[in-house]
Amino acid sequence: MSEADTAASPLAGEREPVSPRADLITAAVLLAFGLGVVALSLRMPTFVEQSGTGLTAPGIVPGFHGTVIALLSILLGLRAARRGGLRAGGMKAGGAGKDLGRLLTAAVLGVIYAAVLVGRLPFWLATALFVFAFTAIFEWPRGPQGRIRRLLEAAAIALGTGWAVVLIFEDLFFVRLP
Amino acid sequence: MLDALGMLGAGFGHAFQGGVVLHAFWATLVGIIIGALPGLTATMGVALLTTLTFSMAHSTAILVLICVYVGAIYGGSRSAILLNIPGTPASAASTLDGFPLARQGLAGRAMGISTTGSWMGTLFGALCLAVLAPAVGEFALGFQSYEMFWVAMFGIVIAGSLSGGDPLKGYIAGFLGLFVATVGQEANHAYPRFAFGSTDLAGGLGLLPVLVGVFGVAEVLNSMRGPAVQAVASKIDSILPRPSDVLRYWRTIFRSGAIGTFIGAMPGLGEDIAAWTSYAAAKRGSAEREKFGKGSVEGLMAAETGESACVPGAIIPVLTLAVPGSAPAAVLMAAMMIHGLNPGPMLAISSPEFIYQIVAMLIIADMVKLFYGLVLVRPLLWVLLIPRERLMPVVFVLCTVGAFAITSRLFDIWVMLGAGLVGFVLRELRFPMAPLVLGIVLGDLLDKNLLRGLVLSDGDITPFFTRPISAVLATATLLTLLLSIPAVQAGWGRGRAALRGRLRRAG
What we know:
By secondary structure, chain A is mainly α.
């Protein structure tokens, strides 16, 4: 087989497959989700009195999608079980601690910015605070050498971003900002 | 034929009117930079730039977005060649030969090949679009609800089968996307589905906030997690494309252009599959097979031509069926709808000139891309050196603006965040994103046509299977599904081998 044949599409994510245990848990969550969608779809009104037939009932299409998701998740679960998902210790250790720390930091900073700061502070200020905090926190572990310069650069980038976003979006392209 | 040429000329005239073409210069440059930076994809670029185009005339807006799309797919090859990291998923195949060439001190030559291949690929695809789109559009005019339902279903199934390593997860991703599209008021009775009393949810989950979340926020998180990357090649030899490369590999260029355009026209597959398939085909047909993976000019040319031909190819089903051929094309289609253009079968009747305007825009973007390919070598190297710690927060800010701008609702920022986090987790669990996006985009089409078909047939489902085109599409969908099952695949392989053996013996 050629390299091109064996290589997975990058859209699929990283090439290392996930553990059968992770697939099994995913299948259980998806099964619950699919069944939940079906249950909610069944509770939707059918509007038989308006349409005469009930063929335009709002629950038909999401009910169909929920059923397919539930069926496919059962297949995923069965496959994971066959591959050893039920065995103890089937779960691989997650990403390295450092990676997870970076990921969580980025996620928490993003949530604080988008869900807390935006809408409460002027947009340029919220943006400047976020960009400064993000850059400063991620560059902090580089050590004390040149830290002051890096922090000053981060502040300049932060203020520059806040100013440029307002200028480009609001003033130049007439886009409303939060 | 003369009509078509006339409309193409008018398309160019339209693009050059009032300096609209000047937008092509900045938009293509933005696209190339977005594509070149690892972690920023063409889909994200088109989604983010859609925000900037709200106040523009629709033709200017579409030109800008096409330039970003064309530029980003090309720009991805820069980081593939210099960093061994594809700037966009589409450029993954370019790393196989681009990076070895750079390590041999031939980074400039590799970039020249990439520029030539990409330029010819997009040109080839644009000409195919000009020839094929009106014909496909005319054919699609005969499609009714039954056929449109199958077109949507076929798109989900084929994208699920081929866009990731695992068809089962591809199908689940596709149906999750279809589910997302059902949230909010439906068309027949204005019943708010899955709204739980929230007026925001009753308005539905906006396409753009979800896409910006899945491709922008999830990408920022993904980039920040891994180790930082460093550029390796700083010395650049001559980047001027060599005519001898074109003349020597003209067969590969044509083959890759045709493969790229065809794969682009298949719903939801996209540039990365076009590049891999073109690369594999070039390797099979090459006299220098042993050079592939070690710095083959032909391999790089094939990958670049294939991925760039895919861009116009992916726009063919957008214009003719309202079904996107790739993830960036899905966002482009959403942008067309935002700007009041209604892509789909009726386009060939209501405004046939629009198809040729798109062809003209693609050719203009291609020419501007060629210009930058020749003059923008060193500045792009500097761009690649921007640390992610300084780039990613800015990208996140742009995602927030992009999600908010379309309807000015803070709720859309929440949707973006939620979609980003869910998208990231799904990606970690190896669910492909292309079927998910296609599901979100095609959800409405599938929903309306399934119910309309059922109403027209008074609840009878046989027209979905007995009308000629429906039957063909249903069979293709079923075959794609069956062939993705490993046991069926193995049986099919054994059957083919047995038949071949029997034919050989008979011969």
